[in-house]
């Protein structure tokens, strides 16, 4: 009987240990400071390249949506950034995708209008409020910036129109 109790307690301790180790293996932590530092470096290089006219800008309409994609292509013919703008009746969404080595940094600005655009074409549309979100797409997973930490989220929670350059290219017929 005493051996059975030892075996059961050892078994439970081992199960707890294995569960804890599996969580640490399958949960990748995104270092916010490293992301911010890398994004700042990207901004500096992108700005310099843009000012030196080493970036080509291409605008394309999104098929089936009232919107457009602006691609920024570097001298190596690599897309370094995309801006996706989608217009709705009562909102406008601007998503910037920064293609950085190993991941995609995304900012999403949504502007909500006080009334639908079609209501009055003669007066300017007033913006009732704005929301701004930041996310990282890494290893096929989406991490949203929440209270200073990148937290793993579902695509429905982040509400970004596309999750890869491939999806953006399909949207504009490339």
UniProtKB/TrEMBL annotation:
Protein's UniProt keywords contain Signal: yes
Signal peptide boundaries: 1-23
Alphabetic keyword roster: Signal
Name of the protein: Lipoprotein
Organism from which the protein derives: Lachnoanaerobaculum saburreum F0468
Source taxonomy: Bacteria, Bacillati, Bacillota, Clostridia, Lachnospirales
């Amino acid at each position: 009987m005493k051996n059975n109790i030892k075996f059961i307690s050892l078994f439970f301790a081992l199960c707890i240990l294995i569960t804890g180790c599996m969580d640490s293996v399958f949960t990748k932590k995104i270092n916010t400071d490293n992301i911010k530092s890398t994004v700042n470096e990207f901004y500096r290089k992108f700005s310099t390249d843009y000012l030196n006219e080493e970036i080509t800008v291409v605008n394309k309409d999104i098929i089936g949506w009232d919107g457009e994609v602006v691609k920024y292509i570097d001298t190596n013919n690599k897309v370094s950034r995309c801006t996706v703008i989608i217009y709705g009746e009562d909102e406008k969404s601007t998503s910037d995708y920064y293609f950085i080595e190993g991941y995609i940094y995304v900012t999403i600005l949504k502007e909500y209008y006080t009334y639908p655009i079609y209501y009055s074409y003669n007066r300017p549309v007033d913006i009732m409020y704005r929301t701004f979100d930041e996310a990282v797409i890494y290893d096929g997973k989406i991490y949203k910036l929440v209270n200073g930490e990148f937290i793993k989220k579902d695509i429905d929670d982040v509400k970004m129109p596309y999750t890869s350059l491939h999806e953006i290219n399909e949207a504009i017929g490339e």
